[in-house]
Amino acid sequence: TQGQVITCKAAVAYEPNKPLVIEDIQVAPPQAGEVRIKILFTALCHTDAYTWSGKDPEGLFPCILGHEAAGIVESVGEGVTEVQPGDHVIPCYQAECRECKFCKSGKTNLCGKVRTATGAGVMMNDRKSRFSINGKPIYHFMGTSTFSQYTVVHDVSVAKIDPQAPLDKVCLLGCGVPTGLGAVWNTAKVEPGAIVAIFGLGTVGLVVAEGAKSAGASRIIGVDIDSKKFDVAKKFGVTEFVNPKDYDKPIQQVLVDLTDGGVDYSFECIGNVSVMRAALECCHKGWGTSVIIGVAASGQEISTRPFQLVTGRVWKGTAFGGFKSRSQVPWLVDKYMKKEIKIDEYITHNMTIGEINKAFDLMHEGGCLRCVLKT
Ligand code: NAD
Ligand code: AHE
Ligand code: ZN
């Protein structure tokens, strides 16, 4: 297949909110600096649903969504030296080129090398897509497009991993698990004894709980409007549960009262701007830090009284948990293999790519953490 166009199945999003369509698509060979990957397993993340909904200002249609996956390199383009056909890999929406201003700064995991192309749904070389159907291009998504049996990504977006690792599990290291752990370990740097509040107990919120527990937090307060989430959340380290619907006063006040002045760290894992405000305002005066993880729709803005920051609260955000993707995803795979981090526990459903619309329905019903699809 090397050097040839591959015809394979993919789930195509033609229009916002219209069911994905399983189509036979054409995947062009990788060009210079590109890698073609046979995707074996892909999970669904809330961000896929967000872009599909039409609320993502970078959303383009038709496109192939998906960004939490694992597979095997099928072929590589000219000049690609770090991976070769047969390597087991995780595509990373957050690239790491090690050469750009961002990578060299040592201050961030964001990489600038291919970001303009990935945001425009194309490849950097020729600003064109490698996907087509009957000659019509289909846009890429987040530089990954994993809802397809084959995808083409930039070489700076490929993490080579231990070939022994089970791909149907470590696919979650493409997004949700690193995001939650890294938000705690890298962005907030939670210390032993800290009091933590987590808003939203979906997969990302539960991974934050796991991370906070591992960091030695003394109290981990889970906040969700769905009380069914608490039983599950306890297994991931949540020690107390608060449902905002059970109170008349604002949730930030409830948390301040529960914690003698506020929490040390809070995490917003929903994508709701009024919850982001509450998450900041429940932080302790003088030092409390709030980390935004949730992705909010186009046009949404956050607000608070500047006095909240003047009096020492800190507002932060995190992308991919601050992890350097190519360097650290293989390390996270190794940690999973040594049973130092959980993955299996976040997978509640397994299906095939043909059932992808049903998988999204499950996500919206709330009875599902991660659903892994065999492609
Ligand atoms: P999810 O839908 O599984 O979880 C969201 C949870 O929030 C649910 O349990 C829901 O009941 C709860 N919730 C909804 N409204 C609430 C409210 N008003 N108050 C309290 N709880 C409420 O989503 P997920 O896959 O865990 O992702 C969470 C968010 O993180 C999404 O916005 C996703 O796009 C984002 N995300 C960001 C990054 C990043 O790098 N920054 C990475 C992955 C995901
Ligand atoms: N296109 C969106 C941005 C969405 C967003 O913030 N994405 C996160 C990852 S979410 C993964 O589930 C991210 O890494 N952002 C950094 C980046 O460079 O995109 C919008 O709203 O514009
Ligand atoms: Zn994601």
From TrEMBL:
CDD domains: alcohol_DH_class_III. Its cofactor is Zn(2+). It catalyses: S-(hydroxymethyl)glutathione + NADP(+) = S-formylglutathione + NADPH + H(+); a secondary alcohol + NAD(+) = a ketone + NADH + H(+); a primary alcohol + NAD(+) = an aldehyde + NADH + H(+); S-(hydroxymethyl)glutathione + NAD(+) = S-formylglutathione + NADH + H(+). One of its GO terms (molecular function) is zinc ion binding. Pfam families: ADH_N, ADH_zinc_N. It is an enzyme of class 1 (oxidoreductase). It comes from the Eukaryota. It is found in: Cytoplasm. GO terms for biological process: formaldehyde catabolic process. One of its GO terms (cellular component) is cytosol. InterPro entries: ADH-like_C, ADH-like_N, ADH_3, ADH_Zn_CS, GroES-like_sf, NAD(P)-bd_dom_sf. Residues 204-332 form the Alcohol dehydrogenase-like C-terminal domain. Belongs to the zinc-containing alcohol dehydrogenase family. Class-III subfamily. This is S-(hydroxymethyl)glutathione dehydrogenase.
